[in-house]
Design goal:
heterodimer, A: 279 residues, alpha+beta, 5-stranded antiparallel β-sheet, 3-stranded parallel β-sheet, 11 helices, 33% helix, B: 162 residues, 5-stranded mixed β-sheet, 5 helices, 5 strands
């Protein structure tokens, strides 16, 4: 396709070279968000680098140490149905199963979702609840960014110009429960508020709140409280800490005040659900 | 000047060559170049599901699929699926159950339901609702659509039971 403004490289190195050489070019994978933005007239990239043919970005692989590496181009549906995301890592597939509808889950990719960083998305809090690591690469280097440091602000990530997400590493699943509780206007909509929770069999808890600020809300203090005690009082204290850290907006989906009310109530329900669903 | 690039793909089994711009979608290609108007342009944002088509056998949104990125792919629109027995069972069930009001969402609903029944021939009502949850019916005729998909599933399994 000589002269085409759409590049379709087969190798990651070629894609990174193209993105370095053509600063105005945008990477595109599933297109579920970028093409919708083009249709709406929000962006008009002069050139696109399609990542869909790059084998290196595909597949879910178990590493030697038991960690799970999800390639950036893996579709939401593949993650939603991957039986290897067991125990605490179940929060990632549970979140994936609640993204949009089937046809969009067949298009959208985890790398694209993380790069877009819409605060109403489902993956960001789910990945925080398992302490995932985002691997990013540019022409000159490859680096690892803990997911809690990857999201910086509204629609803003740690990605630098020329960098793309190449994959997400999820620590080896441990026995326990991982679940994702989402409150939305209709099934598949962006979250008004969401709770991503992992509860290991030894009681260790990791929690992240979505939809209530520029990035997922996490707190070492809240995790510590919930890891040692799961009484209503303890959940209330953890909920207060997370609510105080939130910075929600008033929007068409709900007011900021409504979202602040949801956080402790949804946390309570998520912990009850986890206790009821010992896998 | 808009640069147009030749793209070649299979649409309903027919090799199709079209010159498309970078921002042209698969929906524009099938509707405005091929005059296959079964896939509808509803929201053009990937939300409503009226444009659902199969790409390499998998349901996707044509309105947020780049036409140029479909080079070498197999696309099926509603017009190309009428010979498939499962689709015929769905069509009969939609008629028998009255699962239409304005009809704008119907081709997307049928393709989403076809993809469901290919993978899960005996879905529960909840399975059907989950599979169709990305397809909006602005007339809100969901109850009869869900009934029609369940009815088609029964008809297929009766036919397959000796």
């Amino acid at each position: 396709m000589a002269g085409s403004p759409l590049f379709r490289p087969r190798l990651l190195a070629e894609a990174l070279e193209l993105l370095a050489e053509t600063p105005d070019a945008r990477p595109i994978s599933g297109g579920a968000t970028l093409v919708a933005m083009i249709n709406a007239g929000l962006v008009a990239p002069p050139a696109l680098v399609s990542l869909t043919r790059i084998e290196e970005l595909r597949g879910v692989n178990i590493l030697e140490n038991g960690d799970i590496f999800i390639g950036a181009a893996v579709k939401h549906n593949a993650i939603a149905t991957d039986g290897r995301l067991t125990g605490t890592a179940g929060v990632v597939s549970h979140a994936a199963s609640q993204i949009a509808g089937t046809a969009v889950r067949n298009m959208g990719t985890i790398g694209g979702a993380l790069s877009h960083a819409d605060p109403g998305q489902d993956f960001p809090p789910a990945l925080c609840a398992v302490d995932a690591v985002v691997e990013v690469a540019s022409k000159d280097r490859r680096r690892k960014v803990p997911v809690r440091e990857f999201f910086i602000d509204w629609f803003t990530t740690a990605l630098e110009p020329g960098e793309i997400v190449v994959g997400v590493k999820i620590p080896k699943p441990v026995p326990g429960v991982g679940l994702y509780l989402k409150h939305a206007r209709v099934s598949g909509d962006f979250a008004i508020a969401s709770v991503a929770l992992s509860v290991a069999a030894d009681g260790q808890v990791r929690v992240a709140i979505g939809g209530c600020g520029p990035k997922p809300i996490t707190s070492g203090d809240a995790d510590a409280i919930l890891s040692s005690e799961k009484s209503r009082v303890a959940i209330g204290r953890a909920g207060d800490i997370l609510t105080a850290l939130s910075n929600p907006l008033d929007d068409v989906r709900g007011s900021a005040a409504y979202r602040r009310l949801l956080i402790p109530r949804m946390l309570q329900r998520a912990i009850e659900d986890a206790a009821a669903s010992k896998h | 000047m808009t640069v147009r690039t030749l793209t070649t793909l299979q649409i309903n089994g027919v090799q199709t060559d079209a010159r498309v711009a970078l921002s042209d979608t698969l929906l524009t290609l099938v509707r405005d170049h091929c005059y296959l108007t079964g896939a509808k342009r509803g929201c053009n944002q990937g939300v409503c599901g009226a444009c659902t088509v199969l790409t390499d056998g998998v349901p996707v949104r044509a309105c947020i699929t780049l036409a140029l990125d479909c080079d070498d792919k197999q696309v099926s629109t509603i017009e190309g699926l009428g010979e498939e027995p499962t689709m015929q069972a769905l069509q009969h069930a939609f008629i028998n159950c009255g699962a239409f009001q304005c009809g704008f969402c119907t081709s997307g609903m049928l393709i989403a339901a076809l993809a469901l029944l290919r993978n899960n021939p005996r879905p529960s009502a909840d399975d059907v609702r989950y599979a169709l949850s990305g397809n909006l019916c602005r007339c809100t005729g969901y109850k009869k659509i869900v009934e029609a998909v369940l009815s088609a599933s029964e008809a297929i399994s009766d036919r397959n039971t000796p």
